[in-house]
Amino acid sequence: MKLRISCIAVIVAITTSGCVTATIENARVEATGLLEGEAVVVMAKSYHQGNETEADYIQCVETALGYGANALNIVPAQQFIDKLFPWFEPRTAPGNTKGLIQFMEKLGVSKAIELMGVRYIIWIDGDTERVTQGGSLSCAAGPGGGGCFGFAWWQDDADYEASIWDLDKSESVGTVTADYSGTSFLPALVIPIPLIARTQARACGGLAKQLKTFIIGGEQV
Amino acid sequence: MALRLPVEFQDFVHEENVLGRESWTINLGSSNAKLFTQLFGYMFDNVIVLGPDDDALDYTFDALVEPKIEGFEFSVPNQSKTDAFVVWIRYRMQVFDSVGTSASTWTVSAYGKSQAEGLSGEKALQRAAVLAMRDAAALILLQMDKATNIGVLADGPIDTGKPDSGEASDGKSVNDEPTVFDIFTIGGIDEVTN
Q: Does the model's pTM come out above 0.90?
């Protein structure tokens, strides 16, 4: 009987999850497109500007952009930063498009970027936060066995904004924002059954998919 | 151009107890010596690297720079209530002319931050230290001539009748504006333990 309950709990946990609501928006300023051999680089905004974007989120977006349908050529961020040292360190990287124009005029910068084939920089800002939580759950164990009883829940909000800079034109071509909100549940009647909302992972997949559409599906190159 | 590296640059170890609960030992090893040797080798045409036991009078140079670590601080997530490990390194750069007169001093405050996610605490702190050293390298590369006036020393020793000046120079032995260079690797960080 206990084994059956455990199996049911595992199956339920695997096949179900918490609910996630999503809002993705584009704001296009200029036409986009990628030519053969051109690449993008995904960067977190500088921590000198107070940015707290998680490194694994950046990695996730970078990976998602490079795989699947409409995969983009990706230049790893660290490689890009190393090639441009000292102009793309957290302290020295351009923070706006005015700074981008000055950056592109630095000696050797345009050539280094051309050699890497980077056409767009995608700056990511934002983070995932636990905004609220509640309920209670208690577990106990004794000589005859153990179990849990109760109900807990929590809500995570993932708010990210990607700004896309075109290095050929030294200008911003637009932004893509992804706002995801997910509520996870953990009911327990002897066996806890986690119904986890993978908010950050969904925000990663959603933003990457939209970025591909934004860059490749621009009005014109 | 001469670069005199203090003994601590070959084997820098920082130990600290955090809130009386954790003891952290950060061993930067010889990474500072490698960083400054590499950096100054890029910035100046001819660089003589002097050890702590070398006598500068035995060498000929226009300027001698003696960096040292004036301060090393860090914070861990328990202290900051965030996921971030942060390292601050304060370097003091003392510049001498060819006859050993102090020409200027410059304090370089560098900052590095690394999130803990996906990394052990040791690795995250090490990463923060590397980022702080990169930050220092970028600052030195971009601002040293303006901050220390080292360029004027190419024209001879300073006039001791005049006080130290913080104004930018016209004469330049240091490269005018750094181009991008893909050589930056900080090696020699041995370990971070707690």
A: no
